[in-house]
Design goal:
single chain; Aspartate Aminotransferase, domain 1; four-stranded mixed beta sheet; 2 domains; about 40% helix; about 400 residues; binds pyridoxal-5'-phosphate; alpha/beta; seven-stranded mixed beta sheet
Length: about 400
């Protein structure tokens, strides 16, 4: 059955993804099933999207209820689930205001526009440049792509949007040297996800915050991958004793439903006024109902701490032990909470494929970094099983 569907997939869909020859049809919790009935343990979780696991009952019920009440109305009217979601996000973050959109890239577009508009409103001279980091990933639309610090994503699409500069991640001096009177914002992922789970050095974000304060720049953090409990706190910036001016969210925000958000302080958000920015579907009732159920579940007593912080440490310890056993295969284990990378001395793709054959879905990024972004509901025995399988694969494929 898979074969026929896969042939049709190739026939009718643009060839933008290197897909595994599997059609996933059903999911519950940590598990997904293919159309021919094979069961998989899912350590990809839609790449940090399915934070509560597949088809979490609270999200499903919230969607069912909302679908019967109201699917869509224009943002020309007040929308109840949108208001509730904004309040939840504001009450649990540095921010005072939210803007909703439909994806990560769109959240970055909104943040970039807001940063430029804020500079236009507050400074007499032209101040529009945004500095981001090498190795970063901010999305595929033109603004987000221009902010992205990896050439491979940009090839063939030039010319990009002017006004973006890039500096090495974790290099405060390079950043300092690149700031000019035209700089309006610094845009960073707290932990670089797509770039290979690259961690910030301990004081980096604090020093970046200082540079921003000194030069009146906005600090924009892309928390699309690191947000929604993934690192053991609701937002990753909370680990670093700083407050950003703007953050972007998407991925886990809707618990599996498409939604993005820009959060900002009042001072910054007030640069958006009626007509300056908009999105037809942004903050639509259905997506907001799913996101509201997702955050309420995440915020329940101990959920993020237990399931993410504790399980993250358990997972990292097991991978550290694996690294000791396979020093010629594993270069590094890094991450925070349940955003974990295992850097290999060789390409990750064959390992991903071997795992898939053994019924486990994992992801590889930057060529040789296995990336684990499981649902935050993962438990010890599932982690044990993955690590056992990895051990077996490394034993069978020593080099
Ligand atoms: C996935 C991702 C994006 C892009 O999100 P889309 O929803 O795919 O547009 C942007 N930034 C980061 C850090 C991401 O991980």
């Amino acid at each position: 059955m898979d074969k026929k569907l896969i042939d049709e997939s190739k026939k009718y869909l643009m060839n933008t993804y290197n897909r595994f020859p599997v059609v996933l049809r059903k999911g519950r919790g940590m598990k997904v099933w293919s159309s021919d009935g094979k069961e998989y343990l899912d350590f990809v979780g839609g790449i940090a999207v399915n934070c509560l696991g597949h088809c979490h009952p609270r999200v499903v019920i919230a969607l069912q209820k909302q679908a019967q009440r109201l699917l869509h109305v224009s943002n020309l009217y007040h929308i109840e689930p949108q208001i509730k979601l904004a309040r939840l996000l504001v009450e649990n973050s540095f921010a005072d205001k939210a803007f909703f959109c439909n994806s990560g890239a769109e959240a970055i577009e909104g943040a970039v526009k807001l940063a430029r508009k804020y500079a236009r409103d507050h400074f007499p001279h032209s101040k529009f440049e945004i500095i981001s980091a090498h190795g970063s990933f901010h999305g595929r639309t033109f603004g987000a792509l221009s902010a992205t610090g990896q050439e491979k994503f940009k090839e063939g699409f030039e010319p990009l949007v002017p006004g973006f500069k890039h500096v090495p991640f974790n290099d405060v001096e390079a950043l300092r040297k690149t700031v000019t009177e035209h700089t309006c914002a610094i845009l960073l992922e707290p932990i670089q996800g797509e770039g290979g789970i690259r961690m910030p050095s301990p004081d980096y974000l604090k020093q970046v915050r200082e540079i921003c304060d000194e030069h009146k720049l906005l600090l924009v953090l892309d928390e699309i991958q690191t947000g929604m409990g993934r690192t053991g706190k609701l937002f990753a910036y909370e680990h670093f004793d700083i407050k950003p001016d703007i953050i972007t969210l998407a991925k886990g925000l809707g618990g599996g439903v498409a939604i993005g958000a820009v959060l900002a302080t009042d001072a910054v958000a007030s640069s958006f006024q009626p007509g300056t920015h908009a999105s037809t579907f942004g903050g639509n009732p259905l997506a907001c109902a799913a996101a509201e159920a997702t955050i309420e579940t995440l915020l329940e007593d101990g959920f993020i701490l237990n399931s993410c912080s504790f399980m993250g440490k358990y997972f990292m310890n097991k991978l550290e032990k694996l690294k000791k056993d396979f020093p010629s295969t594993i270069i590094d284990v890094r991450g925070m909470g349940l955003l974990i990378g295992l850097e290999l001395t060789r390409a990750g793709a064959p390992v991903v494929e071997a795992c898939s054959k053994r019924g486990i879905l994992i992801n590889c990024t930057s060529g040789n970094v296995l990336r684990f972004t499981p649902p935050l509901i993962v438990v010890e025995k599932e982690i044990d099983h993955l690590v056992d399988v990895l051990e077996d694969i490394f034993e069978r494929q020593p080099e």
